[in-house]
Specification:
By secondary structure, the protein is mostly helical. The chain has 10 helices and no strands. The two termini are about 30 Å apart.
Length: about 210
């Protein structure tokens, strides 16, 4: 499948079942703790991958190394009634869960239990696990709707900037498609420019 070797393909499927499920569960858990029972009533307060996976997003993760899951529905008004920062924390919970998973995946390297240069399946699995979780975290922190970064930025930005963010929000999916799908065909690696430096820094910091 697009020249993926079998160990990498298996590793990505395993990562798919864990990274996305934890990411979406983290959103649901945080919303539930802020008094919004919408995720619970929609069956999303679970680690069961079947509740969270999106078919196209899952395929993209397997073949391209990044993708998406079904967004967790929340009641924005219920969250804001509970706390002005509730929606921000619900959004931030997803990327933070991927950072935590990446840290856990890097522990065997830090303990010297496995080498990053090993040809073993364990190394292939852990490298995919760490890298994909970091990519999911960084990608979702981009402040463009419908990514988590949009809601996080909206909380921290001054009102004038928030108004600008609100005006471009309806066009967010189109902007993302242009940047990350059309861009590579034009020889413009926006994803690499935005995520690449931070990804290399964090990977080096975690794995060594």
């Amino acid at each position: 499948m697009l020249n993926l070797d079998l160990p990498t393909l298996i590793a990505r499927i395993i990562v798919l079942l864990t990274a996305f499920s934890f990411h979406e569960f983290a959103h649901a858990w945080m919303a539930d703790n802020f008094g919004d029972d919408t995720p619970r009533s929609n069956g999303r307060l679970t680690l069961n991958p079947l509740a969270h996976l999106d078919p196209l997003g899952s395929l993209m993760l397997v073949v391209a190394g990044f993708g998406w899951a079904k967004p967790v529905p929340v009641n924005v008004y219920a969250l804001r009634r509970h706390s002005p920062s509730a929606l921000m924390w619900v959004a931030l919970a997803g990327p933070l869960s991927n950072l935590l998973l990446a840290i856990l995946g890097a522990i065997p390297y830090r303990l010297g239990l496995i080498s990053v240069y090993s040809d073993s399946f364990a190394n292939t699995l852990l490298l995919e696990f760490v890298i994909i979780n970091l990519v999911l975290m960084l990608f979702n922190l981009i402040p463009i709707s419908p990514l988590d970064g949009d809601k996080i930025a909206d909380y921290f930005l001054p009102p004038t900037w928030s108004d600008t963010l609100a005006r471009i929000r309806p066009y967010g999916p189109m902007i993302l498609m242009v940047l990350f799908i059309a861009g590579p065909y034009l020889g413009i690696d926006i994803l690499g420019w935005i995520i690449g430096p931070a990804l290399r820094f964090l990977f080096s910091a975690l794995v060594g």
